[in-house]
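FAQ

Q: What does a record look like?
A: Structure on top, sequence underneath. For example:
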């Protein structure tokens, strides 16, 4: 059960308030205070602000059922003939439909009053969940009306969502007009803030339309603070990892595209690569890279191919791989080209086993050990 804070504003601008804990036990209270000197609120505290019924008119009207947005626009015109004030200066709050399904209870209050009450709450650094006329805090019974005398006023709850505040001297006249049998009136003297702790009978919340509270009570106990912070940190790390992975994949993809273009120009000088062939070549390059890792033959071929690409004076005519030895037949435009190429291979960890000249075709046979 949430903790509660019930505040009542009297006509004389004094305050009553009572505060409970989660077990519905009263932990603090004050009466007839000139200001709201409140104790520290607990987590998930529900705040109810009772305002003078003398500033609120409780009515009912027959109106077709509609959604809340349409209802807020239709209400002023549905009861305009019952009001003497300018409806542009009034605030209308819908209650609940009565049992006949056609009659709606509602409350009317001056916009200036709503702003005044909200300013009082802001000054006390609280944000109420409910603002309601104080007469609806009185106990309700379908068999009788409930009243409470306060100074020169009589608060009278006449129904589930109806009531009024009248001056004591006018009470006999009002009772006669309403045909009220005073013997059937239930009188109470308990402070309204105490009644409001347990009374939740279809109250009309004035916080509607432009005054609707946007405050969401999502206070978290300290036991959950660390868990929530840890979850947020994990989410941030996950997002950063995904971003890093995306950029790493993009860099690798760009590198592959460049490699495809270079290899294409070497193999097919002057030819443009068909865009439809690029995905296939990209997949094959990825596969060869993966398979070639740890494979001596493929790694050696990769080194030799890269070296030949930079030594254009050498032409590879034959390659034989057997017993972890690779025999290469090459031709060179001049003897020094062979020496330079072999030096390049040695710097790349290629072991030269044997070199022999083949006079019949002016080629050189080179036996190497894989990288």
């Amino acid at each position: 059960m949430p903790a509660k804070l019930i505040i009542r504003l009297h006509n004389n601008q004094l305050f009553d308030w009572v505060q409970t804990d989660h077990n519905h036990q009263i932990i603090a209270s004050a009466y007839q205070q000139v200001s709201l000197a409140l104790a520290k609120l607990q987590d998930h505290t529900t705040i109810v602000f009772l305002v003078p019924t003398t500033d609120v008119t409780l009515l009912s009207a027959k109106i077709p059922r509609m959604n809340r947005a349409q209802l807020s626009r239709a209400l002023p015109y549905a009861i305009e003939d019952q009001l003497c004030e300018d409806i542009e200066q009034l605030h209308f709050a819908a209650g609940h439909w009565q049992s006949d399904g056609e009659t709606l209870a509602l409350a009317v209050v001056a916009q200036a009053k709503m702003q005044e009450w909200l300013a009082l709450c802001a000054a006390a650094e609280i944000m109420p969940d409910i603002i309601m006329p104080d007469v609806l805090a009185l106990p309700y019974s379908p068999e009788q009306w409930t009243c409470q005398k306060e100074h020169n006023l009589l608060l009278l709850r006449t129904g589930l969502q109806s009531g009024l505040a009248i001056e004591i001297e006018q009470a006999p006249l009002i009772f006669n007009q309403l045909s009220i049998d005073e013997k059937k009136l239930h009188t109470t003297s308990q402070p309204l803030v105490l009644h409001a702790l347990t009374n939740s009978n279809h109250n009309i919340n004035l916080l509607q339309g432009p005054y609707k509270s946007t405050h969401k009570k999502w206070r978290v106990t300290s036991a959950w603070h660390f868990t929530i912070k840890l979850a947020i940190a994990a989410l941030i790390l996950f997002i950063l990892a995904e971003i890093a992975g995306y950029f790493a994949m993009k860099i690798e993809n760009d590198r592959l595209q460049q490699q495809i273009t270079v290899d294409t120009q070497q193999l097919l000088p002057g030819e443009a690569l068909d865009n439809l062939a690029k995905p296939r070549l990209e997949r094959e390059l990825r596969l060869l890279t993966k398979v070639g890792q740890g494979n001596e033959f493929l790694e050696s071929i990769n080194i030799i191919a890269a070296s030949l690409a930079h030594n254009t004076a050498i032409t590879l005519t034959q390659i034989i791989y057997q017993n972890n030895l690779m025999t290469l037949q090459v031709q060179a435009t001049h003897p020094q080209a062979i020496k330079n190429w072999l030096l390049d291979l040695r710097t790349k960890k290629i072991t030269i086993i044997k070199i022999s000249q083949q006079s019949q075709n002016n080629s050189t046979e080179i036996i190497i050990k894989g990288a």
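Q: Is there anything notable about this one?
A: The radius of gyration is 44 Å.
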